[in-house]
Task: structure prediction
Amino acid sequence: MAEAMTDCQAEPPQNPPLSYVRVAPGESAVPGQFRRGDFILTHGSSFFSRLIRFGQGLRFLGRNRKYTHWSHAALIVSEDGALIEARGAGVRRAHISDYQPTEYHLVSIDKIADERDRAQVIAFAERCVGRKYGLTTVFSIAAGLLTGVKFTFGFDGEYICSGLVARALERTDAILPRSPSHTSPADLAKYFSVTPPKGRKDKGRPPGKKSKTLTGFTGFTG
Result:
């Protein structure tokens, strides 16, 4: 069933305190740097990643343009780095080690979530495994970016990468300024004040080039 959505017109919420860790290409995040319920933001150099950043650039201008660096988000669902993410094949399981070839940032939700909130974030993500990828939402977002029309549409139960994270974060104190299904990686980066390192370019191999777990059409992902 199609769902019509519009962005909230209220005053943008105050961002939570800065809390993230950069993991450089070739490096590995280790237990203790993250907790279940946190999430990662990353980016790639594939055609779709560049397309995502271009689209986000139509919305994020000036000082906010730096947030378009990000093109994918995934939820951390265990203390050993298991992930749940939405990609072209749908919502599925992965592991943080899959992203070792490229740069990513670990984003903490400590300031907006207690243990019960974290448990609910994980429970929601687990229930979403196997759901379809939100291609209709991708087209809706693209149309909105190109035309400026705020009326958007999508199908309930389908998710894009950042939309899955945003829906999960509804179980916390986060108040995102956009409809969860139409929240982009750049929206998450801006809300949590995650900025790319100055003067650095990711030389690593983007996930999906040679990884069996990350192949195929990526859509609104990295």
Q: What stands out?
A: The beta strands are 2-5, 20-23, 39-42, 72-76, 82-87, 90-95, 104-107, 152-155. The CA atoms of residues 9 and 177 lie 8 Å apart.
